[in-house]
Design a protein that fits this description.
CATH topology of the largest domain: TIM Barrel
CATH class of the largest domain: Alpha Beta
CATH superfamily of the largest domain: Glycosidases
Helix content: 10-25%
Number of domains: 2
Strand order of the largest sheet: 4-15-14-11-10-9-8-5
Structural class: alpha/beta
CATH architecture of the largest domain: Alpha-Beta Barrel
Distance between the termini: 35 Å
Largest sheet: 8 strands, parallel
Length: about 500
C-alpha cells in the first residue's frame, strides 16, 4: 500500500477583492471538520458519497463520471465552440470534461496538426491581460501579470455554466509539469510577461524555489477559485504530471509546493459560500492519497509508466484509502494509435470502472476547433462505447458495490478480470484479452481470438441469474440460472472474440 504524504500547513492566500491581483498573507486554517476523514464539498456541490466513499455524489444522488473529452484547451482557445462540444457529450450521456485554465500553453504540432491546447496567437486567451509590449513567444504582446483579462473570465464562467446546463462536471487542472517546450510558451515564463517573473528553468516551476513565481502562481489559483466558487459542477485539481520529464525536480521539492496549493484553495474557500473537493495525481514519489485535504485520487494510463501509476495497479494500491479514484487521462486518440480506436478505448475504460473506479476520461483528439462536435464515424463508435459502459454500470445499484478481488477464483490463461460486487446480491465482472503497451503513453493492444473461457467463482450461498453481455453492443449472449452452496462453481462463458461483461444478480432478495 502506498503511503500518504504527511499533512503540512504552509502559508496561503487570503481572500482579496475579486478584481484585485494584489496581496496574500499567511493564514492557515482548519481544513477538516471534526469527524471527517477528508475534506468534502459543500451540500449541492459535486463531492464524495456518504453512502460509499469510492463514488461521487451530485444533486442528491450517486454518479459516475465517464467521458471522452477534448485536450483541455476548451477555454484558452477562442476558436473552440464548446457549446457544440457539450451538446455532443450530452447526446451520448457523457458527463465530465477537464481543462487547463491558462498557465500551460503548447506549441503546435506536438500531438496533432490541430491541437486545441496550441491556439494561434489571435485565439489564445488566458487569465492575464496583454500589455502593449511586443515579444510574446507565440506572437503578439507580452502579458501583464498585474492585470486580469475580463474577457477570459467571462469565457471561463460561461464554459462552466454551459456544462452545468447539461449536467457535465468540469475538472479544473491548474497546471501541468513544465518541460522546456511548454515552459517557453507560458505567460508565467520571464520572456512572456512584462514583470520578468519566471526567471528560472522549467524544473523550478513546481517548487517553492522561485518566490516571485510562486507568488504569481498562488494569485492565479486564488483568482480562478474566486471566479468559479459559485458553481456546483467544479472539481479543483492542482497539477497534472508534476514529476515527468528528465528536467523536472525531484518529488521532495514538488510535494511542499503542492501542499501550499492545497492550503491556498482551502483557506480561500473558507471565506466563500461553497467548498469544492480537491484532487491530485498520484505518481511515484508524489503521493497525497492519505492526506486529509485530498478528496479525489487522480491516476492516469493503464499501468506504471515513468512515474505515472494507473489502471488496476492504482486501484490495488489506493483503494484502501476509501476515496474516489479517477482515471483522468488515457492514451491520446487518434494521436498515439491509428487503429481500433473503439476497442482500445473500451478495454481501458471498462477494466478501470468495473474494477472500482469512480471516473474515467479518455483523451480525445477528434474534438478540435475545426470540428468541435467531433463529427467522425470512429469517434461516434468510441462515444457509443462509453455510453454502453455507463448504462451497464447504472443497471446495478452500484453505490452498494466495492472492488472485489476474491470472488473470481480462476479464469482461463490469458484473460484479465476485474470485478465490483455487493457480495451475495450483485456482481459486475469484466474480462478481456490484450497486450499492455507500456511506454510513456500506455494502452492495451487487443488480442482477438475465439474465446470460450472457463470461469470459476465463489459466490455466497443462494440462487442467481448470470447474464453474459457483449460490451461492444450490450447484447445478451447467454443467461443462465446458478445455484451456489458457497463453494467454487465453474461457468462456461459463451463464445466471444475480445472481451466479455458478466452480470450476476441474486434472485429473491
Amino acid at each position: 500500500m502506498l503511503g500518504g504524504f504527511a499533512v503540512a500547513q504552509i502559508s496561503s492566500c487570503a481572500q482579496q477583492d475579486k478584481n484585485s491581483n494584489d496581496g496574500f498573507v499567511k493564514s492557515p486554517e482548519n481544513y477538516l471538520k471534526e469527524g471527517e476523514k477528508f475534506r468534502n464539498s459543500s451540500p449541492g456541490v459535486i463531492g464524495v458519497s456518504e453512502k460509499n466513499p469510492h463514488y461521487f455524489s451530485y444533486k442528491g444522488k450517486e454518479i459516475l463520471l465517464i467521458t471522452s473529452a477534448e485536450h483541455y484547451g476548451g477555454v484558452i482557445n477562442k476558436a473552440f465552440d464548446y457549446v457544440k462540444y457539450f451538446d455532443r457529450l450530452a447526446e451520448y450521456g457523457l458527463n465530465y470534461t477537464r481543462i487547463y485554465p491558462g498557465a500551460h500553453v503548447e506549441p503546435p504540432g506536438i500531438w496533432l496538426v490541430e491541437d486545441i491546447l496550441a491556439p494561434t496567437d489571435e485565439n489564445l486567451i488566458v487569465p492575464w491581460a496583454r500589455s502593449n509590449v511586443p515579444g510574446y513567444k507565440k506572437g503578439g504582446t507580452k502579458f501583464d501579470l498585474s492585470k486580469w483579462d475580463p474577457e477570459y473570465f467571462a469565457r471561463l464562467r460561461d464554459f462552466i455554466s454551459e456544462a452545468n446546463k447539461r449536467n457535465i462536471i468540469v475538472e479544473i487542472c491548474f497546471y501541468n509539469g513544465q518541460e522546456e517546450r511548454y515552459w517557453v510558451n507560458s505567460p508565467l515564463q520571464k520572456d512572456n510577461n512584462i514583470q520578468g517573473v519566471g526567471d528560472c528553468e522549467p524544473a523550478s516551476f513546481p517548487t517553492l524555489d522561485n518566490k516571485a513565481l510562486v507568488r504569481e502562481q498562488l494569485r492565479f489559483v486564488e483568482k480562478i477559485v474566486l471566479e468559479t466558487n459559485e458553481f456546483d459542477n467544479v472539481i479543483y485539481e492542482i497539477i497534472d504530471e508534476p514529476s515527468l520529464g528528465k528536467t523536472l525536480p525531484p518529488p521532495g521539492k514538488i510535494n511542499p509546493w503542492i501542499s501550499e496549493h492545497f492550503n491556498l484553495i482551502i483557506n480561500t474557500e473558507a471565506k466563500l459560500p461553497k467548498k469544492h473537493i480537491i484532487a491530485q495525481q498520484l505518481e511515484i514519489g508524489v503521493d497525497f492519497c492519505g492526506d486529509d485535504r485530498l478528496a479525489l485520487i487522480v491516476t492516469q494510463y493503464i499501468g506504471v509508466s515513468g512515474h505515472q501509476i494507473g489502471g488496476p495497479i492504482a486501484l490495488n494500491n489506493c483503494y484502501g484509502f476509501n476515496k474516489p479514484i479517477e482515471f483522468n487521462e488515457s492514451a491520446y486518440v487518434p494521436s498515439w494509435y491509428d487503429r481500433d480506436h473503439e476497442a482500445i478505448s473500451r478495454l481501458e475504460s471498462w477494466e478501470f470502472m468495473i474494477g472500482g473506479g469512480a471516473g474515467f476520461n479518455q483523451l480525445n483528439g477528434y474534438f478540435i476547433p475545426s470540428n468541435p462536435s467531433g463529427e467522425n464515424k470512429n469517434n461516434f463508435k468510441i462515444l457509443t462505447g462509453f455510453r454502453h459502459l455507463r448504462a451497464f454500470l447504472e443497471s446495478f445499484d452500484f453505490v452498494k458495490m466495492t472492488r472485489d478481488m476474491n470472488t473470481v477464483r480462476k479464469i482461463s490463461i490469458g484473460a484479465s478480470a476485474n470485478m465490483i460486487s455487493e457480495k451475495g446480491r450483485q456482481y459486475a465482472l469484466y474480462i478481456h484479452h490484450s497486450f499492455p503497451i507500456l511506454n510513456w503513453g500506455t494502452y492495451y493492444e487487443p488480442n482477438y481470438g475465439a474465446y470460450e473461457s472457463e470461469l470459476t467463482l465463489r459466490l455466497e450461498k443462494g440462487d442467481y441469474t448470470v447474464t453474459f453481455v457483449e460490451p461492444a453492443t450490450l447484447k445478451t449472449l447467454k443467461e443462465i440460472p446458478v445455484k451456489s452452496d458457497g463453494k467454487d462453481i465453474t461457468l462456461s462463458c459463451p463464445h466471444y472474440t475480445l472481451d466479455l461483461a458478466v452480470k450476476i444478480i441474486a434472485r429473491g432478495v
